[in-house]
Design brief:
The protein is of the alpha+beta class. It has 6 helices and 3 strands. The protein has a 3-stranded antiparallel sheet.
């Protein structure tokens, strides 16, 4: 039996509803990255990052590959980056009264 579209969408948004996962997806917009580089930027415990990467991989939002001893992650489709961009646009519209957060959202370093 297939899952209704609204249920599949809800699951997609639940999957992306974690700050570490959002940060990973944002970092991968610039291209594939090894886990060690993600750890340096995100600054979470390796086990926590591993758990979040596994969730993203199971959901099909990222792919992983081995390059020698490194495990490298990438977005599975450019549509994931478009989803993040849409989220930024929506937040920009909703947060006009929160100038500080709006400034952060508009800065190039915060995707």
């Amino acid at each position: 039996m297939s899952v209704p579209v609204h249920q599949a969408k809800a699951e997609l948004f639940r999957t992306t509803g974690h700050p570490v996962r959002i940060r990973v997806l944002a970092l991968l917009q610039d291209g594939p990255k090894p886990v060690r580089d993600l750890l340096t930027v995100i600054e979470v415990e390796p086990s926590n990052l591993s758990q979040q990467l596994a969730v993203l991989r199971r959901a099909g939002l990222v792919t992983s590959s081995r390059e020698g001893a490194l495990v490298v992650y990438a977005l599975s489709t450019p549509d994931v980056a478009e989803l993040l961009a849409a989220g930024r646009r929506i937040l920009g519209c909703l947060l006009t009264d929160r100038d500080d957060l709006l400034t952060q959202l508009r800065s190039p370093g915060h995707r």
